[in-house]
Amino acid sequence: MSSNAIIRSRTLRTVVNAVQKLYPQALADRTWDNTGLLLEAPDRTDRSSPEAHNVLLTIDLTKAVVDEAISLRSSVIVAYHPIIFRPLKSLTLANTQQESLLRLAQEGISVYSPHTAVDAKIGGVNDWLADGISGGRGEESGRVVIEGIKDDSGMGRIITLKEPKGFQELVNRVKGFLGLKNVMVGKTPGDKRVRTIAICAGSGASMFKNVDVDLLFTGELSHHDALAAKERGVGFITCFHTNTERGFLRDVMKRKLAEVLESEVEREGEFEVVVSERDMDPFEIV
């Protein structure tokens, strides 16, 4: 959408402006990603209601999250992953994602997806991951983006630790800050200590093609990408795709979005930003 001014609902326009202030669309990789306002639902907000406008944050917009949004009477869902990714030729109830879109439109709940703009933003999800595995910038001698986009922003991160760390220490650190009992790893050869780490939220293989580091940290690698890393003597820590993203909503995005929306209270009423309790990784380890 070229201009937020054509969004009819003032509530939706306020939320979209706030999200874009934090994560500008110019930072998203529009060559393949489908970011922006994906569903502009008819505004069914009861203006006489004293309740705050509910903004629901989620990684994936599943049927369970749709049920949650409807029960919360949300005005807007900010879904990190875009529910519309490829062109739609129809909207029917035979497809679960299309059914979700139709239900949301009927309930007056709009959907916005920032996706790779959050990845690229300084202070976004990749910097959050970098802070988590390194212990913070005070423990680093350098941090750079892998693929620059604008100013200092860009996709992926490479960090250099001031002091090399043992592989297992970094694994334990990742488990702790992501709140995971298990992760999938490829150990560094000969228990080599780690000084340099390449980081990418979600699926990072394409980002890591030309990097020379001791360790890869991402959500997922394919079988062949993992083999290639092992062959090169590079260790890796993977956590399943969305486990490298979901905690960012709780730890960072909820607070920042609430702060920006708070400045709009006098014009457009109060806003409540909540993180979905029904959003979860589709994989389980048993």
TrEMBL record:
Pfam families hit by this protein: DUF34_NIF3
InterPro entries linked: DUF34/NIF3, DUF34/NIF3_sf
Keywords assigned: Metal-binding
Chain positions recorded as a divalent metal cation binding sites: 81, 119, 241, 245
GO CC terms: mitochondrion
GO molecular function: metal ion binding
Family the UniProt entry places it in: Belongs to the GTP cyclohydrolase I type 2/NIF3 family.
PANTHER family listed in its UniProt record: NGG1 INTERACTING FACTOR 3, NIF3-LIKE PROTEIN 1
Name this polypeptide is given: (Perigord truffle) hypothetical protein
Organism of provenance: Tuber melanosporum (strain Mel28) (Perigord black truffle)
